[in-house]
Amino acid sequence: MKMNKTRLLSLLMAMLFCFVAIPLPAIAEEASTPPAETPATITPEAIPNDLLLDVDLRGTAAYTPASLKSTGGEATVSADGDSVLLVCRKTGGSRTSHLLYWGGLTADLPLGAENSYTITFAITNPDSAQFGFYVDYDGADAAKSTGFVGNSAAIESVPVGNADDANGKRYYCLEIDAKGSLLNFYVLFGGEYQLVTSKQYEGLLSDRLGIIFYLLGGRNASAEANSVLASITVSDVNIYGGLYRGAANYDLAPEADGSLLLEVKDLQKDAFNVKSGAGYHQSVAQLNTAAFPESFYSYDAEKGVMNTTLLNQSKGYSIVYGGRTNLLLTETSKYTVSYYQTLTKAGGAGLRVSIGDSYADSIGVYLHQSVGTGGCLAWGANTGPGYSGYKKFTAPMMNGNTVYWQEEQYAKVDIEINGTVVSVYINDTLLLTEDITNPSNPSAKEDITKRFMSDTLCLVFHEYANADLTAGAPSTQFKDIRVYAGLLHQESYDVKTLQLQTGSAQEGKLNLRFVGGGMEATCNRVGFEITATYGGKTDTYDYNTPEGYRKLTAPRKDTTLAELTSADLGYEYLYGYTLYGVPADITVTFTVRAYTIDMGNRLYAEAVTFTVENGVLK
After folding, report:
1. Which of 6, 99, 349, 529 is at 20 to 30 A from 301, Cα to Cα?
2. E strand or H helix that includes residue 176
3. DSSP letter string over 73-133?
């Protein structure tokens, strides 16, 4: 895997253009001491990486902080070593810039090309003083160290107004990406660390990791001597090995094994799967007829639903909202993108999975507001030569007179990407398949593959209006955007074995019970063919699930049959096969082939074989 720095920098530039820069103050106003009351509790996002050091700010053999550079600065560490109050007091004249650099190098955490770190900390900043955080030190001048400067309003002039806050206490995270020579700065927002900004570095000043905090008191001609110019409280400092969310800066080409790569609950927030390394970053907000309205998109955290609102446009507007993942999108990629959506009140709406320089250079799905019309696949703008033509919803997609799934008021949409072949499933039934290099629409332009393929998979919601609308009215709801590796409807994946149980021996006979788990895939129907060969005999057993199973996954590992309850299973599924009265010393071979059922056809996984000798699974 290699880092796509050009794409990352373009993404960050897009972020900067979306905000109004807030300059950092050059001179701090007179500040009072922090309030005595304890700030309300904020729960930071858990970092699953290995915790290397829970920093004791009193000083230990692993980390010994000190005042490194100071004019009027003082530090008071709490009795438990969890926090430190940093203060700048008026000590010099009207031209004196008061400041404090406090901290130092760790004893045995090396910096270098092979050493990446994730560092979290909290800042209580009641007066929005300017502070900084640095990760190296040349041993002489802390002002030369590498890091970030900010205040409560912004970090490096990028606003952080949506950050979680309780009486000025905020949680921050900094990653040192040694491989990419990159520093990533995050703020806790909605209980999760969201990227604020990144910067490249050419080299670090020390061979060990530094934890250094900076406070600017500035100049204040009218302040009384010894008065407090600025103060912050630093707390909850922890150092973890490796990158956490920054791993999403690296492009991935995952194996098509049916696994869940990424889940995005809210398109306006970053998402990351620490297990797969897949990540999402919101970077696209575009309207083709007017400035982008912030009120178009909203997220209902209580219901877990994303919403769109109709704009004050008579007709013909097209709007997109979302971003990019780090999952490579090439002519050999295999992904399934799954989500739930209501039918839009606009002309059409859906998810686009690739986007070039604009929404017009993309591939995506539209569902139309008319149930009798259906949906289409669009490549480029949703105009004559740019889409497949609407395909009507069929009876297997419907629940009575609606395309909504079961009792929920959403249609289940799956977009399968098999290189340049894109298939759309509605409620687990095939709606259409298109090869964008050879589209079914005879009006489509030739040789469009490269133009409409992004370098990475995108998750962009697109709404298009072709009729007069009531501005401000609710339009579309969608939720549960997930990306899987592979083609869940067209391919099966390895069957998972839970256990093989044997009954008690009676007169030299055994009752063998084979018990297996379902496939880790989301399918409409699955089945299993089991063949048992023993003593010159062959028994076969064939079972497939009834209609309506949406999600069948293997039971958790290391679980015995006796421990399973109905609550454990849910949509999970067990299958089994029992041989009665076979000789105790016989060898039995079970061959299992798992399959999915798609449009009446069986699509098989590779056969898996299990052997039992003298009642013992080999």
Report:
1. 349
2. strand 169-177
3. EEEEE-TTSSEEEEEEE--S-TT--EEEEEEEEEEEEE-BTTB-EEEEEEEE-TT---EEE
Structure tokens at 120: 């979290």
Which residues, in sequence order, are bridge partners of residue 544?
527
As beta bridge partners, residue 199 has 183
- Token pair for residue 306? 């994303």
- What is d(CA 66, CA 449) in angstroms, rounded to the nearest whole number? 59
CA distance 31 to 13: 34
Please write the tens of the pLDDT for every residue from 22-62.
232 332 333 344 444 444 578 899 898 899 999 999 999 99
Residue 112 β-bridge partners: 115
Query: pTM to 2 decimals?
Result: 0.67
Query: Cα–Cα distances in Å, from 575 out to 257, 424, 498, 542, 553?
Result: 21, 30, 10, 10, 12
What six digits make up the tokens of 600?
A: 């009446």
Q: By three-state DSSP, how is residue 367 classified?
A: strand
Here the tokens at position 104 are 């130092």
Q: Which pLDDT tens digit goes with each residue over 518-559?
A: 444 444 566 777 788 888 888 887 766 654 433 333 334 343
Look up residue 374 and give its DSSP letter. -
Encoded amino acid at 471, one letter:
A
Q: How many helices (H) and strands (E) does the chain have?
A: 2, 39
Backbone phi and psi for residue 206, each to the nearest 5 degrees, phi listed first = -130, 165
Sign of torsion over alpha carbons 32, 34, 36, 42: positive
Nearest-angstrom CA–CA distance, 413 and 391: 14
Question: CA–CA separation, 341 vs 328, rounded Å?
Answer: 25
Whether 210 contacts 135, CB under 8 Å: yes
